[in-house]
Design brief:
It is a single chain. This protein has 316 residues and is α/β, with parallel strands linked by helices. The protein has three domains: 171 residues, no CATH class; 43 residues, no CATH class; 74 residues, no CATH class. 47% of the residues lie in helices and 12% in strands. The protein is built from twelve helices and nine strands. The strands form three sheets. A four-stranded mixed beta sheet has the order 1-5-6-7. It has a three-stranded mixed beta sheet with strand order 2-4-3, covered by helices on one side. Strands 8-9 form a two-stranded antiparallel sheet. A hairpin with a 2-residue loop joins strand 6 and strand 7. It is globular. The protein binds zinc ion (ZN). The site of zinc ion has 4 residues, from helix 4 and helix 5.
Length: 316
């Protein structure tokens, strides 16, 4: 157990000397937040607007409500834990990330609130999930061991990583859909629906055909300069295939265990509970009881989303 104010719940493999050093490191993370930017080669962060600070505080509260729903104590993510970055300064192919070592979130500020909120909520779930570190014995290095479902060890790289990302993004998706009427989201959502249905954009081929097919919302990605007719690129919530696999798995668990669950959302809650508490045993038992011994382990081993989808579709 590390100091209050971090989300690190356990340290594995540390001798007493290392443990003291690790505790020292995590005591200092708030005052050394700037280091994370150096490490990732990010030159500068943006000053947060009042609106962004308000969003951070509101999402901190909402994610704490989730923890409390599962009987867990709150973890505070203050605006100091969050670094807002111009999109050009982000590492490639990243909209946002959580650093367990620095206890920090780095997030790109694209023009719209919706992608900002959905990415921030997602990273806050990683932050507040069950976090544990391990120590590399020879070098005394602090390494990631658990983030929610994901296990990283010398033998198991990114074990259950796909499920972890799928559950995390699904929580973020549900959060956005629950809050479509919020002023920060509503105007963009209405505008998006309007914009996407306009002939001009359809002709440009940028409207996904399955626009409202299951996802509920598409996320505007870039800022649109209305006068200059610049078009917006849209993206879905991330981890599409992984989330399809998760949904399929949840539905199959539900139908295989007739009468055990009120509806599939209760099965989803088992996954969320495992992410927050780190306890995977019960869920693993349920899955192996339903589909045969070794199934849970196999799900953890698969690293490719398409392969995972194929695997869970064939479960019966
Ligand atoms: Zn993630």
């Amino acid at each position: 157990m590390i100091e209050q104010g971090t989300s690190i719940k356990r340290v594995y493999g540390a001798n007493p000397e290392n443990l003291a050093r690790i505790q020292e490191h995590y005591r200092g993370v708030i005052s050394s937040q700037g280091e994370v930017l150096n490490q990732f080669g990010i030159n500068s962060e943006l000053e947060k607007t009042n609106e962004e600070t308000g969003i951070i505080e509101a999402l901190d509260q909402s994610t704490n409500d989730k923890l409390s729903y599962f009987g867990l104590s709150p973890i505070t993510i203050s605006p100091e834990h969050v670094h807002v970055i111009a999109p050009d300064d982000l590492p490639e192919d990243t909209a946002a990330f959580y650093s367990q070592f620095h206890q920090t979130i780095v997030i790109g500020r694209f023009g719209f609130n919706i992608p900002f909120i959905k990415s921030l909520y997602h990273e806050m779930i990683h932050f507040k999930a069950y976090n544990a570190v391990r120590v590399n014995e020879e070098e005394g290095k602090i390494l990631q061991y658990r983030t929610g479902f994901t296990i990283d060890s010398p033998k198991k790289r990114y074990f259950f990583g796909l499920i972890n990302e799928a559950v995390t993004e699904e929580l973020s998706r549900q959060f956005i859909l629950r809050n479509l009427d919020h002023p920060l989201i509503k105007s963009e959502y209405d505008w998006m629906v309007d914009d996407l249905s306009s002939q001009q954009i359809q002709k440009n081929g940028s409207v996904p055909e399955d626009l409202f097919d299951g996802e509920g919302i598409y996320i505007p990605k870039t800022f649109r300069f209305k006068d200059q007719q610049e078009l917006v690129g849209y993206e879905t919530f991330s981890n599409v295939t992984g989330r399809k696999a998760l949904t399929s798995l949840i539905n199959t668990i539900d139908s295989k265990n007739t009468g055990a669950f009120g509806d599939p959302s209760e099965v989803f809650d088992l996954f969320v509970n495992a992410i927050f508490t780190g306890h995977m045993y019960e869920l693993g038992k349920l899955i192996d009881r339903s589909f045969g011994r070794g199934t849970f382990r196999k799900i953890g081993e698969i690293q490719d989303p398409d392969e995972l989808l194929e695997f869970v579709k064939n479960l019966q």
